[in-house]
Amino acid sequence: MNTDKLTVVVLGGGAAGFFGAIACAEANPAARVLLVEKTGKLLSKVRVSGGGRCNVTHACFSAAQLIQHYPRGGKKLKEPFQQFGAQDTVRWFEQRGVQLKTEADGRMFPTTDSSETIAQCLLEAAHKAGVHILLTTTAEHFEPLPEGGFRVTLTGTHAQTLTAQRLLIATGGVPKTEGYNWLRQLGHTIAEPVPSLFTFNVPESPLKELMGVSVPQARVVIAGEKLDYEGPLLITHWGVSGPAVLKLSAWGARRLHELSYTGTALVNWIPTYTEESLRQWLHTFRDENGKKVVLVNALFGLPQRLWRALAEQAGIGAEVRWSELPAKPQNRLIELLLRMPLAVRGKTTFKEEFVTCGGVVLGEVNMKTMESRLVPGLHFAGEVLDIDGITGGFNFQAAWTTGYLAGQAMAASTR
């Protein structure tokens, strides 16, 4: 090991780790920055995110608005986002030759629509800045030294013991609480990890045959709870998914865990209507369209297959016209349109978007520098912190921001 350079060790080869390592190495070329990754793969989540397109960030350029998208950690992120927000992320990638584009829902992707563009940009920036990447290597042990810094024991391909002036933990979220024991041993408090961003299993779903049908705007409410979210909804072979469910699962991560992921989800397929306005609208519609057959003429822009399923469940026969529709099945139809009950019995991880709610509590971290308030020289970035955002690029933005601030702080302290 070259001991004439100050050494910074970054644990974790994901988005936050790379951003921290690059920020440190670019700001202080005299520092020796080692990025340690226990697997043989770098930037795994970056490569698979957004269906392989990489949802880099969200077009939300006000810190006050950006923090509204974080079920946990939002308030504490306001100042960090003022230091390095979504606009800074866009600029950072543009300066390195990667243009981002904004989609209708605010999500931002590289114009190439390929996550490889982002991964290669980060790899090239790290290489150019002189970051040393150690693959299939694990930080088996590290301990703070009385004179400051850390003794770090690496095992695996690049086994060695070294002294690091600064240490950045960017190891990501851990699904099981025991995975944080090594940080507890340093005195840090851990918010218990539970899953966030998941879909709902509905094994007895009356909509099973409609797999693949989606609606652009629905409201999902958990009966008896103060949990609801509105957005696109997708019917799957196992239950329901789509942004409305994923975002609801993020906001309700802890409560849904307490409920063992069981309960009743009430789906409002036409959230722009109240019961009163819907009854008035149908009254007028019946007067003007009495001869139309109910089942075959979908209303409210709903997919025909979904409309037919709802009407059949309401007990409406195949040939019944609006003028002939009795009050009882009409009332059932109204109830199903506004409050269709689905018996949730478990959850399913949503592709690669799995996020852990929980981690190092933010009160023990200086959010300006991401440095531990308990262990000088120890920094944190990314999902290892008790920060998680809803789907839409927000988790990556938290990784870029915390990684950048940690890297800048480490660079300044090792000059």
Coarse shape: elongated
Report the count of strand segments: 22
What portion of residues belong to β-strands? 25-35%
Ends: how far apart? 19 Å
Domain RsdA/BaiN/AoA(So)-like insert: 194-355
Pfam families: HI0933_like (PF03486), HI0933_like_1st (PF22780)
InterPro entries: BaiN-like (IPR004792), BaiN-like_dom_sf (IPR023166), FAD/NAD-bd_sf (IPR036188), RsdA/BaiN/AoA(So)-like_dom (IPR055178), RsdA/BaiN/AoA(So)_Rossmann (IPR057661)
Cofactor: FAD
Summarize the structure.
Keywords: FAD, Flavoprotein. This protein has 415 residues and is an alpha+beta fold. It has helices at 15-27, 44-52, 63-66, 74-83, 86-95, 115-129, 181-184, 243-251, 253-258, 275-288, 304-313, 327-339, 394-413, and strands at residues 7-11, 32-36, 57-58, 100-102, 107-110, 132-134, 137-144, 150-156, 160-164, 166-169, 190-196, 198-201, 214-222, 228-235, 239-241, 262-268, 340-345, 347-349, 355-360, 365-366, 371-372, 378-380.
Question: Would you spell out the secondary-structure blueprint of this structure?
Answer:
Layout: E1 7-11, H1 15-27, E2 32-36, H2 44-52, E3 57-58, H3 63-66, H4 74-83, H5 86-95, E4 100-102, E5 107-110, H6 115-129, E6 132-134, E7 137-144, E8 150-156, E9 160-164, E10 166-169, H7 181-184, E11 190-196, E12 198-201, E13 214-222, E14 228-235, E15 239-241, H8 243-251, H9 253-258, E16 262-268, H10 275-288, H11 304-313, H12 327-339, E17 340-345, E18 347-349, E19 355-360, E20 365-366, E21 371-372, E22 378-380, H13 394-413
Parallel strand pairs: 1-2, 1-10, 2-6, 10-22
Antiparallel strand pairs: 3-5, 4-5, 7-8, 8-9, 11-19, 12-15, 12-18, 13-14, 13-16, 14-15, 16-17, 20-21
Helix pairs in contact: 1-6, 1-13, 2-6, 4-13
